[in-house]
Fold this sequence. Notes:
437 residues; mainly alpha
Amino acid sequence: MPTSPAPTTTRGAGSGGRRPILLDVAFLRLWTGATASGLATWALPFVLGLAVLDRTLGATDLGLLLAARTIGFLAAVPVAGVLADRHSRRKVVLWAGLASGAAAPVLAAGLGRSVPLMAAAAAVAGAGQGACRPAYQALTAEVVDAGRRQQANAAMTLAVRVTTLVGPSLAALLAVFLDTAALLVGIGLLWLVAAFVPGRGARPGVTGGAGSAGGAKDAPGTSFLADFGEGVREARRHPWFIAGLGALTAVIATGYSATGVALPLVSRDEYGTEVVLAGAMTAYTAGALAGALLIARWRPRSPGRAALAGLAAYGFAPLSLVLPVHPAVVMAAYAVAGVGIELFNVPWFTAAQREVAPDRLARVSSLDFLLSYGLAPLGLALIAPAIEAFGAAPVLVACAFTCFAAPAAAALVPSSRGFSHRPAAEPAEARATGATR
Length: 437
């Protein structure tokens, strides 16, 4: 049976075996910065929504600002992927955090005065958010040894889910004492934490990984397009990655759109209350928390196929909205979807960190975020007209079918079994931690 190279320990990686990952100072710093950036990313649209409630912003203005943020995000992701592979990932995180941190007080200054100024600041904030994503993903692989990356990625996603769960209550509480401008400045302070707290990782290209043998360091002085093209070629070296990314993109563009558009409509029109909407979203977050806790320790026999099955579980969310069922059924379906999405996310990130050539990891990660998040607005834009034209039930059935079928098709790719180009090999994390299959 072919085996992968033994995982190497990088500078800053803990060597404590089974020691809890959050006791590793290098990772704790990285986790704190990533948590601050996640909280700031989530908080911005919520705080701007508060400005709509107090009539400082109009609904159209809010849409413009969120669109500007999305454009900045998508524009920065591929650029950051190239820069994070060319230079220090830590410096990319620093400058991205500083950019978003500087944009926050500009947003506050433009509040009620200049929507164009706020739109420009929102685009800069989105660019900082987008630049952080691939850099943090690659920096995790530098800071954490291969045997504990699944645990580290689970800790990262737990932080995101906890902030999503408690964030609304915290922001609502702060809004009692602070105005919207002060809250925006507070978001800027969170970005400063994200910029300055993480420590330094290894230099790009020195971390060990199964994919490192497959790609040489790119020649210096190449153009941005050439460098990004190298990242695309690296991604194509891994059929499991291409298949999984296609499935993920399809699920986000359909299942997430059903959550964003159809769930509020069904909650209002079928149940006559916002309780179903709030309950389903809370159940989804709680399920995701449970999924992250589970996958931090669980090592399935076929990790890739188990992850794709988790991704397919998102299909239960739109399916639960097709027929008039008890609200508890809808909430249970969203809880299952939440568990499943983390059963996919954590092994997916871990496999990329293990299999992709280290000096191209940020570019491959940027391709992941660019496609999966980039096509989400298209799904959101199309699903509402589709519901008006064909009715909610047929559209929701189509979304559910896509969520089930796309991961099933990806699972047919042989290397998808273990998210590895060695489908029969035992994952490196299992050997390093002594986990049984």
